[in-house]
Amino acid sequence: MTSATTTERPSPYRLLAELEQRCRERAAGLPEQEEVVELWNGIGFMLGGERYVAPMGEVAEILHVPRATQVPGVRAWLYGVANVRGRLLPMVRLADFLNLPVSARTRRDQRVLVVEHGDIFSGLIVDDVLGMQYFPVDSFEDQASGLPDPVKPFVRGSYVRSDERWYVFSTFALVDSQAFMDIAAW
């Protein structure tokens, strides 16, 4: 009888240990953990040459300025009433209400921010809408300096991004104000 040379098979444990070692040697490192920045968002708009942003929950929709019927005996800043999908939408020229100059190049640039708050359904005509805006929460500042006095009661601070200041404009505070509700001309 001849003695056969037998080759020993590696144990399953040893195979797994070698496989683990090779995986560790060839594994790429984990990506660097990036810091997550919390963002605040709103609808950006222009009014009187300034940038404003309304909180997302305070604007129901954005419209082109629809045809409207003028209402007699009301203040000059009430643009009129429009039928929007079967609902009467009173529209206010916000620049006129706040005694600001209109900075829109044309009427086609203007938009209506529709506000639904409690029983109030109203449209605010602004010079232009700049779309969704996002700001790092830590860039918020309480200041609203440099704004005209009629605007200050409705501004809740500001955000700065790329050396541009965006004032947070509360449409709910506006429609809750007694001056906004006082539309009679006499």
From TrEMBL:
It comes from the Bacteria. Signal peptide: none annotated. Gene3D superfamilies: CheA-289, Domain 4, SH3 Domains. Residues 39-180 form the CheW-like domain. One of its GO terms (biological process) is signal transduction. GO terms for cellular component: cytosol. PANTHER family: CHEMOTAXIS SENSOR HISTIDINE KINASE-RELATED (PTHR22617), PROTEIN PILI (PTHR22617:SF43). This is Chemotaxis protein CheW. The lineage of its organism: Bacteria, Pseudomonadati, Pseudomonadota, Gammaproteobacteria, Oceanospirillales.
